[in-house]
């Protein structure tokens, strides 16, 4: 479909279908907000989202990638063609609920998928709603990617809650590492020389990492906490532990830094006469920026009255791993008041506010029109693919 007027008419029909889902999407978002579930435990959210999708004729596949709270719902077009993924999230933060705005993502993208289904008979290819659990630290998308859940997806679209009008040019890759030191206990007053202090191993690690920070690139971050500081004040600690996060805009540099941080811990073990065991969390890669794909989003946002800036996301997400395998874009229209940071009580309140719910629908409107462009215009998708293959653009 190359006729501009036909394309505009198709978008108008899809947006009208989305408007008709406004009340249902808002209700779904509010229910998820009122019933927060942490990573891999989003059973109620998935049940409600599935109910909405199936109620509008989409077949939902549950337990994607052997993860009970991962789902996929596909709307097929008139003939084979490309697949556009709508990458939804619905997990909450432990202790703080939906201060991440994922309730707005899960519900709004479900509405976008239903609206697109209304016009898919006039398009080639398919749209798939991918419900991805445990973004907040669990790495659901990483596991799904490794297990083939995104095979065949030609482009992936995601919006995220926030105070900005922006498209993400990148994010920080992150690797977490845990150090568990083992020493030898002794009476801390009567015979401390008989012990080997595991807490000293932790403290020397922090000292070495603090010295390392002077020698790292400005885009990198190393931050850590003590997770076990000993057992009693009058006992030389037999065990102690710490956890660190190593971040950078460059995933390869994170891996390089990780080797140096581990060397700090091993040297600390030698200095303190203790032993250290090292374990890692899932590696969250940086977001690969595809300007051509971002350009489609920005143009549709502009048509709808939003002027999107380019912005680096100063946090980390498992969407980064997907973006290294599939052309991916993440964008934000305001769902929070200006200046409100995510993972705050103010963001929690915004997720159930009129501003948040209206922003959710605006985000879905951009998603619907962008998906139509990618499905209806092979030349746009080919440009996106070529740019994606051409290099590791990070937008910096």
Would you mind describing this structure in some detail?
With 396 residues, the protein is α/β, with parallel strands linked by helices. It folds into 2 domains: 4-171 and 286-390, Zn peptidases (Aminopeptidase, 3-Layer(aba) Sandwich), CATH 3.40.630; 173-280, Alpha-Beta Plaits, CATH 3.30.70.360. Helix content is 41%, strand content 21%. The protein has helices at 4-19, 22-34, 43-55, 102-117, 140-146, 198-212, 251-272, 291-303, 319-325, 345-350, 354-376, 378-390, and strands spanning 59-62, 71-76, 79-89, 124-132, 155-159, 166-170, 173-182, 221-228, 239-248, 275-280, 309-312, 328-332. The strands form 2 sheets. It has an 8-stranded mixed sheet, with helices on both faces. A 4-stranded antiparallel sheet has the order 8-9-7-10, with helices on one face. The longest helix is centred in the last third of the chain and has 23 residues, at 354-376. It is elongated and about 85 Å long.
């Amino acid at each position: 479909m190359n006729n501009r007027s036909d394309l505009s008419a198709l978008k108008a029909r899809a947006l009208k279908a989305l408007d008709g889902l406004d009340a249902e999407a808002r209700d779904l978002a509010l229910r998820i907000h009122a019933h927060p579930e942490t990573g891999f435990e989003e059973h109620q959210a998935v049940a409600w989202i599935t109910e909405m999708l199936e109620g509008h004729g989409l077949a939902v596949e549950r337990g994607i990638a052997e993860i009970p709270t991962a789902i996929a719902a596909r709307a097929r077009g008139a003939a084979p063609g490309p697949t556009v993924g709508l990458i939804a999230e619905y997990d909450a933060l432990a202790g703080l609920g939906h201060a991440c705005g994922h309730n707005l993502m899960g519900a709004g993208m479900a509405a976008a998928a239903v609206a697109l289904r209304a016009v898919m008979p006039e398009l080639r290819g398919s749209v798939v709603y991918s419900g991805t659990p445990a973004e907040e630290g669990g790495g659901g998308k990483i596991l799904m990617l490794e297990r083939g859940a995104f095979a065949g997806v030609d482009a992936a679209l995601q919006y995220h809650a926030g105070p900005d009008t922006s498209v993400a040019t990148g994010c920080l890759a992150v690797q977490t590492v845990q150090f568990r030191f083992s020493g030898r206990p002794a009476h801390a007053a009567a015979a401390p020389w008989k012990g080997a202090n595991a807490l000293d191993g932790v403290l020397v690690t922090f000292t070495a990492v603090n010295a390392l920070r002077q020698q790292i690139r400005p885009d990198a971050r190393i931050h850590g906490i003590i997770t076990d500081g000993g057992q009693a004040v009058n006992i030389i600690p037999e065990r102690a532990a710490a956890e660190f996060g190593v971040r950078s805009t460059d995933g390869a540099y994170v891996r390089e830094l990780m080797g140096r941080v581990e060397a700090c811990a091993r040297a600390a073990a030698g200095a303190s006469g203790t032993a250290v065991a090292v374990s890692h969390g899932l590696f969250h890669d940086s977001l690969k920026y595809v300007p051509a794909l971002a350009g489609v989003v920005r143009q549709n946002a502009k048509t709808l009255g939003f002027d999107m800036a380019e912005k680096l996301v100063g946090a980390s997400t498992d969407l980064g791993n997907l973006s290294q395998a599939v052309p991916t874009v993440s964008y934000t229209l305001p769902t929070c008041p200006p200046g409100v940071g995510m993972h705050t009580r103010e963001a929690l309140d915004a997720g159930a506010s009129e501003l948040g719910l209206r922003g959710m629908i605006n985000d879905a409107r951009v998603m619907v029109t962008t998906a139509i462009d990618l499905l209806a215009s092979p030349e746009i998708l080919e440009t996106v693919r070529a740019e994606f293959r051409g290099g590791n653009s990070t937008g910096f």
